[in-house]
Amino acid sequence: MTTAVETLARPPRPSVATRAWRFVARHALTVYAILAVGYLMLPIAVVIMFSFNNPPGKFNYVWHAFTFDNWLHWNSVLGIQSALVKSLEVATLATLVATALGVMIALAIVRHRFHGRGTTNLVVFLPMSTPEIVMGSSLLTLFLNSHGTIQLGFWTIFIAHVMFIISFVVVTVKARLIGFDRHLEEAAMDLGANEWTTFQKVTLPLLAPAILAAALLGFALSIDDFVITYLNAGPVQTFPIFVWGIARVAVPPQVNVVASAIFLVAIILGLANVVWQYRAAKATRGAT
Amino acid sequence: MGEFLHRHKGLTPYLLLAPGMLWLALFFLVPMGFLGYQSLQSGLFPHFQFTWEFSNFSTALSDYHTQLIRSFVYAGIATVACLVLAYPLAYWIAFRAGPWRNLFLLFIVAPFFVTYLVRTLAWLNILADQGPVVRILRDIHVLGPNGRLLATTFAVVAGITYNFFPFMALPLYVSLEQIDPRLLEAAKDLYSSPTKAFLRVTVPLSMPGIVAGTLLTFIPAAGDFINAALLGTPNQSMIGNVIQAKFLESLDYPTAASLSFILMGTILIMLLIYAKVVGSEKLTG
Amino acid sequence: MNQRMTRDQLLRRGAVGLGALTVPGLLAACGGGGSGNASGKVNDVLNFANWELYIDTKKTLAAAGVDKPTTLEQFTKKTGIKVNYYEEVNSNPEYFAKVQGRLSRGQGIGRDILVSTDNDRFLGEYIANKWVQKLDKSLIPNIKYLISAQQHPPFDPNRDYSLPWASGMDGIAWNEDVSDPVTSVKQLFEDPKLKGKVGIWNSMGDTLGLVILENGDDPAKVTDAVFDRAMARVEKAVSSGQIRKFYGNDYAQPLDQGDLAATMAWSGDILNLGNPKLHWVVAEQGGIIWTDNMLIPLGGSVPTASTYMNFMYDPAISAQWSVGSNYISSVEGVKPDALKLDPKAASNQLLFPDAKTLSQMHQNDPKMLTNPDYNKRWLAVQGQ
Question: Which of A15, B179, C149, C301 has its CA 20 to 30 A from that of A143?
């Protein structure tokens, strides 16, 4: 008769090879993640490096000599500062509005059955498939046909950006909504909350990472757009318009400085978020 | 607010849709109507006449089907490359990154904050014929002695892949992030190998993200022109380049418009086929 | 004002914008729309749309060792007119796409002067479609200093609508680290040592102009046969892999890096690269001189713009501008003034070409630039 102790005998210790393999497999993913981010950062590293370059001519293509001058006098190139500010303003505003509108559309499509659901879904894909030059030009025609009601400038850029960002937000948020576990919401409603409160207190927080991801994509699209913006900007210059314009004759290192600065500010915000997340996690651990 | 919505449940989808769809209707569909009008015009700039010129479409298709097909091939390769490269990264961020996850999301997106032209000039620098990358590849005989990376199909597809990476990675992350890690644990316990667990459980659960990422990458990439313009030769010319040239250089608005509709129409047809094949609930939930 | 329109007119208005078919649209179309100022009044503000880095600035003057206020500052001081200088033209076709909608509706674009190049079709389109206004030559006495080569260009034989702003020359540049001197288009297209490392422009006027000269033909008089001969040469060079790529102004980086051994290049760019390993020459069979011209768009103020043009045609001012911007002036007699400002720049052939260099320069035939069949074939060789 076997005793309980014998039947619960320990499994044989895995071999060294298996342990080594498991160690590698465990960390391979992390290594890959770092390599992947390295690949993404490679041109950015070059951009940052060349922001310290002191080129002999007007172009900044070949490394010449190190200098801090470009960073000290970053706005010495006429127009670079206002272009940057304009880009940030438009991107922030357009992202906020487009994200809100896009999340609402995604919710409607995924969670409700209504007439024209399939068509709406397809219509949302259309702006993504339209070449920028014709989309921008046709939109310009619309503005011109308003006979002065709509003046070309900041707001026409804003309108255009919201228009092409919405689709990307919808598709991204849908990826989270499809297969969303409704049990938590059902539980909340069982406990007496109505639809609106449930949405506020349960759905929205669960959707938050998806909304953030969609907003990041939207911001990236807006701050990098050239063709549609150029055609509909009137006299306003955004940073991409400024860069494309100046690159015909010169690429001053200040362009690299501003580009690097935007990137570094974003990363610093990210690092701040890491600290904040650590603190939040510690707080919840302490609370339990 | 809560009471109103509760009593008028049927209204909710329309209320949700209204603002966004109105915006699209006014600022996208109306301009597209004008574009459609242009696609049926004939004549030379600026004296176009509306003549129901449906032959614009057939002429455009027969003249430029090479570039159209090439665009879909390049977009397809780039999409697959993005999927393969981005999935492990998205997985790591969703499950292993912990408090670092938002920072890494930023790392994925932040290259976009550096203008396209500036990023591409940096790539032109890195991949230069005399640069370290090409020299190493020549030394290990991956490239011939006069081989180059720039001004090739590789450069164009690599450029598209790099520039659309976030559009694949972020939706993948969004859908992976919602998977309950305990499901993955259970899968590992139930299946004999981690690979099987991955294929049978993780991948299907992340399908909405894969679908979203694929669409967000493939569709805009098919209409891209800038990568082929800066990184390619005439042999890499995509339909976006043709439309750009027809519009800007030739001032041939009808052809540019009809080509745009051919592109949009082909993509729509692909979407419909895709929905039929994978089931439309993958697209709408 | 004629309220009744023929069907043909209606269709044309419709072609220009659906909105014109609305009642306000028709009224606007009948009235001509624009907010022009054809009266004799000179404004106190001038809105000038130009290419980037096309004018002298404090920084460039300091680099050239010239201690004077910029030409814009001197203009304001002399006339009291403030200049809003917009560096918003970054390519001829793109700027054209941006403004043609408004101009074709008879509306202004908020600018008194815009600048467009003569070696592609767009300059001709502005003038042919009457989207620009006639200069007020009574306000431009300095027009007498316009060099003779620029007095009767084919697109504006009487200089009624345009005046040159800046010129540059099309030639050949090579990187001495990667190649021996390259001095002819023939060498560019046929030297096997250069295979896969040659650049040419995506602009028809520039590239074909040089090739036509290499064939011994005249780029100012392009017939079908002339065009075919030139295109055949380009097509052969492209299909054989001799040509690496078609470039806009982005050949500068590959040339600087050595990806390109030799390329067709603009004189101004080589100056601006500042790399002593790069050399520029006029091609053996001749070069093309291109000129960016000032135009007064609809809605712009003719008297204000004309006053500015007159100021820039003062030889002393033009000399300072040329030294400070690194582009060629079209004003007679600038060299003595330039010598006083910056002797080194004044003796630079790329900035102040002498008669011998200028004699090697030619201009494009505008009919070649606007021919739709030529255009289609030119795009086809680029895969578009």
Answer: C301
